[in-house]
Amino acid sequence: MTVDDTSPARPACVALTQEHRGHGVSTAAYYLGRVLIAQGLHVLLVDLTGRRACLNTLFAHGAVKNLVYWAPTTAQMHDIPALVEQARRETTGHADVILLDIDAALLEHSGGFATGVDYVVTVTEPTEAGQQAADRIAERLHDALPPYGRVGVVFSRIDAPSASSLPESTSKRHLPVIGYYPADYLLASGEDYSLKGGDAAAPHDTYLFAMLRLGQRLMQLVPLKRVSGAHDTKHVVSHPHGEQKSNGFLMP
Q1: What burial class does residue 63 get, using C-beta atoms within 10 Å of its C-beta: 0-12 exposed, 13-18 middle, 19+ buried?
Q2: From CA 172, how far away is CA 128, in angstroms rounded?
Q3: What are the residues facing 251 on neighbouring strands?
Q4: DSSP string, 63-113
Q5: Could you tell me the CATH superfamily of domain 12-245?
Q6: Which of 33, 163, 192, 232 is the most exposed place for a label (fewest CB within 10 A)?
């Protein structure tokens, strides 16, 4: 009796998280998704924060084929493992990467890596306090120590003069710093950057280049690769209490 190796591989799952709001994680998740589809991958972006204004606006103004948005209406901690499992199961053969936009406390209390997450990107500031916050997230997720861990750090709102002096790892736990992105005033009307909200605006090239570098690094680290079918597929992530936004490989 032989084992059937023809079944498609499941998509990789990467969580983008932060200990406290204010680092532009939802916006970064959207543009990271765009970077990954430009590299030939099919991406499902799942909003588990419950704060939909930012991603709703971005997708309304910048929908891209093969980048799909799913915002379940219920995101309690006991729901997260089932939602992640459902997303992976129903997009197998259709998606290559699932990006989760999720707050650190919810990720921790819902089971961390046991929810089915392959890698965690924690976004923070480059200060000592920010690095300690990243270390706390890794500790609470019971991540292995480097070089065997699955948590990487991204610094937010970095200006050009500071970029060359960023550390390669956090000072205590030595988590790898896998990227950074600048503040971008063109994005300042978005929900992540302002309480006023507003229409989405395209970021500067420096922001996009930073997202490109981060996407390429994640492709190497996780790794992220094409596992979906080569044909043009249409599929749905269904949830009785969920909201689906479609463009490309998923259709409601």
Answers
A1: middle
A2: 9
A3: none
A4: --TTEEEEEES---TTTHHHHHHHHHHHHTTT-SEEEEE--HHHHHHTTGG
A5: P-loop containing nucleotide triphosphate hydrolases (3.40.50.300)
A6: 232
Residue 144 near residue 150 (C-beta atoms within 8 A): yes
Residue 234's SS3 state is: coil
Q: Would you call 30 exposed, middle or buried from its count of C-beta atoms within 10 A (0-12, 13-18, 19+)? A: buried
pLDDT of residue 242: 47
**Owner of token pair 């306090």:** 129
| 241 pLDDT higher than 50 | no
Phi, psi of 238 (to 5 degrees): -105, 145
Please give the backbone phi and psi of residue 142, each rounded to the nearest 5 degrees, phi first.
60, 40
List helix spans (H) across the chain: 25-38, 53-62, 80-91, 104-109, 128-140, 160-163, 205-221
Cα 83 from chain centroid (whole Å):
15
Is the link from the previous residue into 167 a cis peptide, with omega within 30 of 0? no
In this predicted model, what pLDDT tens digit does every residue of 191-228 receive, in sequence order? 444 444 455 567 889 999 999 999 999 999 999 999 99
The domain locations on the chain are 12-245
Cα of first residue to Cα of last residue in the chain, in angstroms, is 39
From CA 175, how far away is CA 152, in angstroms rounded? 6
